[in-house]
Amino acid sequence: MSAQTRVDPGCTLVVGASLPDWVPKGARLYLSHTAEGLSLRALARNSGCHASTVLRQVRRFENRRDDPLVDDALNRLDQVLREPPPPQNKTERSDMAQSTCLVHDATAPTWSSGDLVSVLRDLDMPGAQLVVAPDMPKAMVLRDMGQGRTERVRVFDRTLAEMLALKAWITCCREGRVRSYVASPEGLAALRAQDDDSPTARRVRYGTVETPIAVLARRRDKSGTAFLVPELVHAADRLREDFVMAQLDRLEPMPVDRLTRALQKRALPGPNIAPPGTRAARGRVLGALQDLGPGLSDMVLRVCCHLEGVESAEQAMGWCARSGKIVLRIGLQRLKLHYDRLGADDMLMG
């Protein structure tokens, strides 16, 4: 590592100018590995996690480059790391801080969090989609009004759409030269958290969304023991990472039995010609769900992958109140054992 390169404990790589704060942690790890050449084990030591976790994040973002918006966003940030921008004077920094629109600064865009949430709020309207094409410097939100009528809701800088895609707050619903996107479950969760008027509500910051697992992980009993130990949270995160890498988050949520049959028969809705990394992730998801079996797999899929609340999952499956948390914890314990048997696979990268 050169004298100019430093990696802090939060995995923020600094080369003259650091990556913007809004860049997701997984993207930071990926860019540190690809742009700076840092090994997966070095990144793991720095971030305090296992090398297999870093490997999955790197794989996930590498597979996500099939999406042009994600690919363009990573190319911009890669250039920031390789060719840091010249220092700005105080006036330039002040103008940038006051701007509510995207500002290009050596390919690294910046905006207020309100810009992101504003687009998500438009996408939350019935029939709304984000539309973008390769030769379009702008993106737009269109809304299907029915009877062949379409309303243009807003037009904005393409780089804002790129960052929404990088955060996984939008997901592609129609591919082609002109691509259409809708708000993803993570994006809607971010919007709901932002719109929660409770004074104790946790606000979204830099793409961090409070998942049901994160909420349960904070709960403790009278003795102070955590309801979910870190190893169980790690297992849940690993399944969710594979679920997203397998591009299953782009599909309408389906029951676990239907999903496993579709994975076995390679009969998922939409194109089933997937790159090797996506196919491998689908195999890992299938193996985990089959190992869990009926009941446990239903609850784990709903809460960990579909980000459905435990109470909502209980009601949907007709279970009695407060039983879902116990079943979920048992399922995560079984899932941890499943991953323990797999071990750290394919640690050849980096």
UniProtKB/TrEMBL annotation:
<dbReference type="Pfam" id="PF20057">
    <property type="entry name" value="DUF6456"/>
</dbReference>
<dbReference type="InterPro" id="IPR045599">
    <property type="entry name" value="DUF6456"/>
</dbReference>
<feature type="domain" description="DUF6456">
    <location>
        <begin position="204"/>
        <end position="340"/>
    </location>
</feature>
<protein>
    <submittedName>
        <fullName>Helix-turn-helix domain-containing protein</fullName>
    </submittedName>
</protein>
